[in-house]
Amino acid sequence: MIAKLFEVRETQNRGKGLFAKDFIPKGTIICFECEKCKVLTGIDPAKMTVKEKEALLDYAYRKKDGSYIAPCDETRYLNHSCNANILGTESGFDIAVMDIKKGEEATYDYRDFYDDLIMQCCCREENCCKEVTFTHPVPAELLKYWNEKTNAALKLVNKVEQPLKEYLKQKSIFLPLDDKLINNQIT
Ligand SMILES: C[S@@+](CC[C@H](N)C(=O)[O-])C[C@H]1O[C@@H](n2cnc3c(N)ncnc32)[C@H](O)[C@@H]1O
Ligand SMILES: [Zn+2]
Ligand SMILES: [Zn+2]
């Protein structure tokens, strides 16, 4: 489930994307896997062609445990950026790690996923890696960068309005978060 903060629009170079309807402050919890998100079963990436995997990546992502999740809503339009303004946490939700201006595209860092593809990246960021790989473990430097960003954002969780607050309770995620969750550490 994604907070109702975005509209779906065409991007210049990567199909549809999600654009902020208003200013979204850093620390806003953006989305989480809710009970309506589908867990796709019976998928064996070893038996799939590159084309089939690419098609799958259009609407689903692979998690550490090997399962594929197809989000229930417009979360599926979240494009990748090498300088993403939304990142995953170990707390069961994704969070805005930068302020997102009105009209700006919301992006996630796909290198967090466990697919085994290579995606040519057209994010046009200064730090663009050009070829997104899903290799794990994630390089230590990138991991450090993500952890710094998410930890700083988590410290703001109780200071900004949280549109998903009530829904997060369904996942037994209660705000304010305790210190353990705030000191997020993706490994
Ligand atoms: C989950 S979908 C995102 C929504 C997609 N743009 C659409 O219109 O359905 C993921 C797909 O978007 C494209 N995409 C997302 N970010 C990209 C990027 N930085 N560079 C190139 N393609 C990207 C790739 O085709 C990828 O398989
Ligand atoms: Zn959902
Ligand atoms: Zn890039």
The CATH architecture classification is: Beta Complex
Strand line-up in the sheet with most strands: 1-2-10-7
What's the main sheet like? 4 strands, mixed
Number of separate helices = 4
How would you describe the overall organization of this protein?
This protein is α+β, with helices and mostly antiparallel strands and 187 residues long. The protein has one domain: Beta Complex (Beta-clip-like). 17% of the residues lie in helices and 21% in strands. It has four helices and twelve strands, in the order E-E-E-E-H-E-E-E-E-E-E-E-E-H-H-H. It has a four-stranded mixed beta sheet with strand order 1-2-10-7, with no helix packed on it. A hairpin with a 5-residue loop joins strand 5 and strand 6 (68-70). The longest helix has 15 residues, at 140-154. The model has no long low-confidence stretch (mean pLDDT 92). Bound molecules: S-adenosylmethionine and zinc ion (ZN) (2 copies).
Describe how the helices and strands are arranged.
Layout: E1 6-10, E2 16-20, E3 29-31, E4 38-40, H1 50-57, E5 61-62, E6 68-70, E7 79-80, E8 86-88, E9 94-96, E10 105-108, E11 118-120, E12 131-133, H2 140-154, H3 165-168, H4 179-182
Parallel strand pairs: 7-10
Antiparallel strand pairs: 1-2, 2-10, 3-9, 4-6, 5-6, 8-9, 11-12
One zinc ion binds at residues 1, 34, 36-37, 71-72.
